Amino acid sequence: MVAVTMMAFVITMLTEAAVDGMRVEGEAHRRLEASLIADRLLADIESQMMAGVPPEIGRDEAEEEPYRISVEARPLDLGRLGIVPDTSPGSSSLAALVGSEGLGSTPPLVEVEIRVEWDEGIHTLDTRRTTFSFDAAAVAAQLPAVASGDDSDEDEDE
Questions:
Q1: Maximum Cα–Cα distance for the chain, whole Å?
Q2: Which of 40, 42, 84, 128 is buried most, with the most CB atoms less than 10 Å from its CB?
């Protein structure tokens, strides 16, 4: 009788360990799949940026069961990075260009965030990737003297 009780106790503990292991393995599998989806989207966005196609500002959402995917491109918030931009009139710094309305539809500095989320029991888990885009053409159009290499002022200082 004691041996049967101990055997039942051991089997119960092993069963709980097996169920926990399967749960953790399933969560790890879903996290890996979500990471692969996010990495694929990140590679697509970065290859487009390398080809000279800046990301469009806005948010796109899609669904790949069991995942919800969102890609958001927004102007880079320098304040969030701890940089206080010089937005005084006549300032030609890049920080001033970030807040400029004269750059067209896409600002020169863009933050792109990819978020892949899924439901894991009663919790929602996610994985995120972030990249940044710098549109040199937009900056060059705003700073023609810098883009053309006009450094006559620097020569006078020497």
A1: 100
A2: 42
What DSSP element (H or E) covers 59?
strand 58-64
Q: For residue 57, how far is the Cα from the chain centroid?
A: 13
End-to-end CA distance of the chain: 98
Separation CA 20–CA 16 (nearest Å):
6
pTM for the model stands at: 0.65
| Per-residue model confidence as pLDDT tens digits over 102-136 | 444 567 788 899 999 999 888 999 999 998 888 77
**Between vectors from CA 83 to CA 110 and to CA 131, what angle results, nearest 5°?**
30
Per-domain boundaries in the chain: 2-151
What single-letter amino acid sits at 32?
A: L
